[in-house]
Amino acid sequence: MSKTVTTDMQRASQLLKLLGDQTRLTMMKLLQSHDCCVCEFVEIFKMSQPAISQHLRKLRDIGLVKETRKGKWIFYSINEDHDDYPFIQGILEHLPGQDGLVTELEAQGLRICCE
Amino acid sequence: MSKTVTTDMQRASQLLKLLGDQTRLTMMKLLQSHDCCVCEFVEIFKMSQPAISQHLRKLRDIGLVKETRKGKWIFYSINEDHDDYPFIQGILEHLPGQDGLVTELEAQGLRICCE
DNA sequence: TGCGTATATAAGCATATGATTATATGATAG
DNA sequence: CTATCATATAATCATATGCTTATATACGCA
């Protein structure tokens, strides 16, 4: 068993473990079509702000998402430059679209929009 | 958010969590090319027999693998009839082959072969 | 400058996970 | 029929995970 193969498997299982949480998985799927800020996620997942922050941190620590400040908000987006992005994308493609979550947010007038 | 979408995401994250363990992920990749019995896994992963059994149980409980008795041994194989097999397969395709593990086992004369 | 809002971090806690050891089951070979 | 080998399950334990509450940071704006 070569060292790099071990490393690759370790890396892959680490990525899969990150995606093996419904909140984070849904976040990633959502981010494929819409950048979102923290407070939007709080609304969407009906979860406390620190809980959301902590999920985002895990995704960010491993480089799957990146953050961009826009005015008062910090928007998160998918880091398509990640070495394993094709792998991630392959997984996300199999999942049902989560755009309904954003639509719902807009209907409530809670979508953050800053240009 | 429709109920089925939620269910699908829940199911997907559950599968990914299962694969988000290096031992189980490697088992699945291995099983794609070789059926293996419990004692082989014990050798390959240098792990206790109960530990291996428990990993296999998780994979079996969710239907990803199935077991077949052959003589004294119980061989595990991938359940290609699983509803989510295409999803799983898509993931495994991105991973480096683990055949070296079986080759190594054969070199040690530990490969179980029963016809 | 200082206040309010958005986000991050820290600490604590309950539950989940993965390993170990000990023991049970179950099929096979004598 | 019994002893043995392969595997499964149970009990236990240490660590990991994900949430909560409390607090810190950092930017935007009056």
TrEMBL record, chains A, B:
Gene3D superfamilies: Winged helix-like DNA-binding domain superfamily/Winged helix DNA-binding domain. CDD domains: HTH_ARSR. One of its GO terms (molecular function) is DNA-binding transcription factor activity. It comes from the Bacteria. It holds the Pfam family HTH_5. Residues 4-98 form the HTH arsR-type domain. The keyword Ligase does not apply. This is Arsenical resistance operon repressor. It comes from Staphylococcus arlettae.
